[in-house]
Design a protein that fits this description.
Shape: globular
Low-confidence stretches: 1-47
Radius of gyration: 20 Å
Largest sheet: 8 strands, antiparallel
Order of helices and strands: EEEEEEEEEEEEHEEHEEEEEEEE
Helix content: under 10%
Number of domains: 1
Number of strands: 22
Number of helices: 2
Strand content: 25-35%
Mean pLDDT: 87
Distance between the termini: 26 Å
Structural class: mainly beta
Length: 349
Amino acid sequence: MKIINLGLLGGVGTLLTVGLLNGCGGSGSGYPSAQRPSNNGSQSTLSVALTAPAQVAFVPYNDPWPSSKPRMWDISNNPYKDWITDGKPNGKFAYNSQQVTLTYDKTPTTRYFSGHIAARGLKPNFAYQLKLIGKPVYGSRGTGTSTSYIERDGRLRKVGDTPVNGDDWANEKVGYSARWWCDTDQINADDAHYRTHYVNAPVKRRHTIYAYHFIGDFITDTLGNYDGNFAGQRSYHVTWSSWNTNPIKDVQFFGPATPSSESDYGYGANAQLNPTPTTLFYEMERGRADPVSLPVGTYHCRFMITEESFHNNYNGGTNDPLGGFWKSVLISETPGDTISANDVVFTIQ
């Protein structure tokens, strides 16, 4: 189990004990208590104090990735029948700006990002990915140079009295600790792709390449609620389920557990749910430091929530339009937002 001292979040001095993003904490933290599994011991015990808490709310995100699809099943492939009509989402479920808040540490005592997620009214018995996202300056969807920004070498480029928006230095440090997404080509990229199409490319031909650190998943309860802490000390590649074909089981973080429907929320009346227990695993991101150790400095980032689809329509997964395809649904600030209060800014010391 992870022991994370949240200070103000749980009341001064309150100690909340949770598994890594698996809702193993107190009442209301993910799965109903009867179904809530214990951590299997694969995670080390860690104490993280939020020395300088800051909070941002999430807004709905219109994922521009053409391949992304919403998932209309829970972690055990039970369909949300209330939200499906004629085999398609009927619009009765929608994300909004009141559902999720992130409280994070602006000055963590560790070399990685950490915080707390509070969520209400999301999809029930559902896995959501947490991602720390960089803010590249260049490319068609970069932040641009009309507001203050930070170059790859760490130099501040001040533009009038505007606050820092883009941060190429932080984007690169996060990317080399985790993963890359080339928004221009709409693909997961590697270090070589980043260097070719960003570092060494002429400014006007640079791709928009976001760093992203997949920190882990959180699992909602039967009402789509979750309260729990996270610590980004490891860099994960993707999540696998026990029902996947040949799942990669680097880290078991959830289960075995069986979803329940105490209120019929999403599932419809008298829903008969799959009784087979589900266990979830992380695949580590290969070739990255473990644990994560971000370089000392200040980071200007975004934070994103993506629906976990367990390789549906991909290698080792199910094959159904309702199974989703890694659709990102909520974000701390949308591209083009220059309001500094919506930034996720923290300093590694």
